[in-house]
Fold this protein.
Amino acid sequence: MQIPHNDKSEPLSDVTGVIFAGGKSRRMGSDKAGMMIDGQSLFQRVSRALGQVCLQLQIAGERPDLATDDLPAFADIHPGSSLGGLHNALINAQTEWILVLPCDLPYPSPQLLQCLLTHRNGAQAVIPRTSSGTEQLVACYHRSVLPLVEEQLQKSDLRLTNLIERLQVRYLDEQDLPCGWRRALTNLNRPQEFERLQTPPPVVTLVARSGTGKTTLLVKLIAEMTARGWTVGALKHDAHKFEIDHEGKDTWKMAAAGAALTAISSPVKTAIIQRHELEPQFNQLLHPFIGKVDILLTEGFKRSNLPKIEAHRQELKQPLLCRGEYDDPNLIAVASNAPLQLNVPLFDLNDAPALADFIEERFLK
């Protein structure tokens, strides 16, 4: 079962958070630690995430440019490998446990780090394990592994995987990891990967006639894809006027006083309310989701050229929206509770997992 978001706790004093920043960034072509996302460097993003779960922080790597009084940097005694970085972290930490992260994670997750730490009992290391492999540099290690690290370094065996095979490891599989683990484990190695973060996410819109149950299907689909580790955005198109703010609330008073845009923010969420005379173009609506989600699922926008999945319910005795007077070339699938003859894939209206498989294969692989 996956851990929900917003699992807040105080930083721990028995764990040292360690940022691996000793690499040369050869494949990227520039220092990854200083690369900027949303006004913050990758190094700042990683150090902030670690700081939420660990009271003590340090840098493994000769990086005086990144070090501060509260965040010291230590040069590797055995430079040039992740095993050498782990040795650095263990000999300089003043705690029994260390929690390590590389400096090239664009979306480090405190929830994931807390999850690792809650599974320490009886283990020498706690490591995520997914279909992509094990994540040995997003992990926590006990001080007892230090002699094994030193023994391996003396033999010039620099393979971290060889060390892991000798440890008592608690592996956390996909079902054990918190929501959003895919993004939390994403690291950047090449310029193309960094550029991809600046591009809009894939979008799929769900359309249907009123009463079909498209919102119910969309909610099931969001839950299914979130359970698979994807970070999902949702956007609903309302053809009518809706009101999200309410008379008497502080933000309502600010807007009534003339504010063109009002917002309210807390440690766990932010809401922005903007009024407009002309309905925005879709690319304007898409902008806030860039770099924030893996995929955007929308409801409505039936006149758009977005890829569409149409929900159909036989009891309504109405033709498909996208296969009525004309064939919408943007229709990519139909979810129905009855057999239909179509030139696109047909799914059961209640089979959200099968529909998620289809979306994954087409837009996320």
User: Anything to note?
Assistant: The first strand starts at residue 12 and ends at 20.
